[in-house]
Amino acid sequence: MTKVKKLINFDLSKMSNGGVQEKFEQELKKVSENILDENTDAKKKRSVTITLTYLPNDNRDAISVYSEVKSKLVPQNGVSTTLLVGRNDDTGAIEANELKSGIKGQTYIDDNGDLRTDTGEKIENVENKDKQTKDLKESSEQAQVIDLQKQGKKA
Questions:
Q1: Which partner from 73, 80, 109, 122 sits 20 to 30 angstroms from 141, CA to CA?
Q2: Of 45, 52, 44, 46, which Cα lies nearest the Cα of 23?
Q3: Would you call 20 exposed, middle or buried from its count of C-beta atoms within 10 A (0-12, 13-18, 19+)?
Q4: How many CB atoms lie within 10 A of CB 35?
Q5: Basic and acidic residues compositional bias: what residue ranges (predicted)?
Q6: Strand, coil or helix: what is 145?
Q7: DSSP label at 103?
Q8: Is the per-residue pLDDT at 29 higher than 80?
Q9: 16 pLDDT exceeds 90?
Q10: Which helix H or strand E contains 25, and what residues bound it?
Q11: For residues 63 and 56, is the Cβ–Cβ distance under 8 A?
């Protein structure tokens, strides 16, 4: 049995000293990671495309071959949330916080067992801030009280 000589000796895996094979493996890794990503649609198709572009010289006896390896991935699924917006009653500044409880004004218990506001702030911290604000207002009001009877005795 005689061995037939190959007329075209152009092995993709050896092209450009293995560069095309290396790029293919990199793109295949991206596709594999995308398939394993729980945040993507498992049923959608992914692809790896190898494009070879041939540019012959003027004599048509030599060809420059350019290779490009690309992958088409599935985008990650989007996520949504609710943002609570309003003005701060004390300062008038605009505030925005993510709704964490599911319903505006509703408190919830987090994974550590801490009671939190609808925006995720610890109730304990809110109560401490409220107490500090109340104490500050009371001390400020007391400092501004003028006892006119005592002023009259000094005169």
A1: 122
A2: 52
A3: buried
A4: 13
A5: 113-140
A6: coil
A7: S
A8: yes
A9: yes
A10: helix 19-36
A11: yes
